Amino acid sequence: MSSIVTGSAGFIGRMLTRALIEAGERVVGIDRIPQPAAPGLTVLTADLLDGDERVHAALSGADVVYHLAGCPGVRDRRPGVARRRHRDNVLAGARVLAAVPPSVPLLVASSSSVYGGAHGGRPSRESDPLRPAGGYAESKVLLERLCAERIARGGTTTVVRPFTVAGEGQRPDMALSQWLAAAREGRPLRVLGSLDRTRDVTDVRQVARALADLAARGARGTVNIGTGRGHTLRALAAAVAETLGAEVSFAVEPAPPAEPGASLADTSRLRSLIGWAPETDLLDLVRRQAAASALPGPRAGEAARATAAGRSRRRGAVREPFAPSLLAKAT
């Protein structure tokens, strides 16, 4: 089977590409960022909107297409971000939708941010009204509307809404990556709003597996990809502290409007389609991400020695593992 992964150099794209190759599939990875060639992987370094004939031929001749490319970053406030979001999330999405034949399974990555958070503590269902807060979520809603038009014309299209994906390879601008870097450097962890806010943290490995299973199913419509279980930011910070053997403190700031108080997936439809839903072992996830983001070269040895020394000092002071209640101080 030949699979296309757009955004193959991205966080989820890299994990999905690896999983597909390990399953014996031939993958064409399309991304603006150059990638090294690998067995089972054909790399196309191209922009989806540049009219590259190789890209069109790949999209029109694939057995399945995973469209993960886009402009990420809920909190991105750099100049021109609105234009980049429209170009990379909406216009590029429209180009892919037009190129892929209707009978070919096409999975398109949207975002749980279109819900605007869980309301009243209830998990977000695919049928819920959308309440996008901020330009990123709004661009994903526009992309979903294009997908709905393709589905209405008979296209085999699955819109996936992943919830707070974490794990090895996570982008450096995302919260867990920032917290690991801060804890390593002895800086306070930046918290938006409150440590009691919750997130449906989903393991990137299981997101990749769910994407492949949904493609095999040939489902149409919208599907959440999450665990259905919320983790507090306090628990996530405790996992960071235990992983690095570091005592952490916090710099708590007001949360901007685009930051929901909680996110939580209703996974009923996902389970009905593929027979399972992700489950996250938070400590294992944080340990994997920390190991993958360890500094290379000589500085890696320094970081490892500092981490071991911090763990030794902390174990001398506290006999049990880091508990969330020990991490509640704010600076």
Written description of the protein model:
- This protein has 331 residues and is of the alpha/beta class.
- The chain has a domain at 2-165 and 202-228 and 262-281: Rossmann fold (3-Layer(aba) Sandwich), CATH 3.40.50.
- Helices cover 40% and strands 15% of the residues.
- Strands 3-2-1-4-5-6-11 form a seven-stranded parallel beta sheet, with helices on both faces. The protein has a two-stranded parallel sheet with strand order 7-10.
- It is globular.
- The model is unreliable at 297-331 (pLDDT under 50).
- It holds the Pfam family Epimerase.
- Classify the oligomer: single chain
What strand line-up does the widest sheet have? 3-2-1-4-5-6-11
Strand percentage lies at 15-25%
How would you sum up the major sheet?
A: 7 strands, parallel
Q: Report helical residue fraction.
A: 40-55%
- Known CATH architecture of the domain at 2-165 and 202-228 and 262-281: 3-Layer(aba) Sandwich
User: What is the CATH superfamily label of the domain at 2-165 and 202-228 and 262-281?
Assistant: NAD(P)-binding Rossmann-like Domain
| Average predicted confidence as pLDDT | 89
CATH top level of the domain at 2-165 and 202-228 and 262-281 is Alpha Beta
Euclidean distance between termini CA atoms = 54 Å
Rg calculated over all Cα atoms: 20 Å
As residue ranges, the low-confidence spans are: 297-331
User: What class would the helix/strand composition place it in?
Assistant: alpha/beta
CATH topology of the domain at 2-165 and 202-228 and 262-281: Rossmann fold
Number of helices: 10
Count of distinct strands? 13
Shape: globular
Strand/helix succession:
EHEEHEHEHEEHEEEHEEHEHHH
